[in-house]
């Protein structure tokens, strides 16, 4: 059964890479968000119930923005900086982390503010952006180095989706931290 599913997935990845990558990303995003909520339910003193609406918002933003953007971004990086020589990989990683990452992190917080119908959609980005950016660099610089050295181009979004299972838990943890109002 698993080999049939894996074969179907590989064929779908070849025939419909964008939609397959998006579905894969959505699956990992959903699993990560629900695992983060479950962790909170078990270990936080408040014992919050699972919030499927919040999960749907995070998964929607992540899947509709991140997966397609990353699909085309990695194609661009591989075309612009071909190969796996140390200099090319370092260039890809630095370009990814210091060009695309700031945009994607800002988009995440702003879009989440919009779908959560917050009065101030910039409140969280002002309070949490730099903490998120630093955590992102600590996680993704090594992660993207592995990606650009060892992962075939057509599997880059899948690799990132897999690694994102951990990263999304971190991102959701940071997002759930209370924001202090500034005067």
TrEMBL record:
InterPro entries: Mpv17_PMP22. It comes from Papilio xuthus. Its main location: membrane. It holds the Pfam family Mpv17_PMP22. Keywords: Membrane, Transmembrane, Transmembrane helix. It is a multi-pass membrane protein. It is found in: Membrane. The chain crosses the membrane at residues 54-74, 94-112, 157-174. GO terms for cellular component: membrane; mitochondrion. This is Mpv17-like protein. Belongs to the peroxisomal membrane protein PXMP2/4 family. It comes from the Eukaryota.
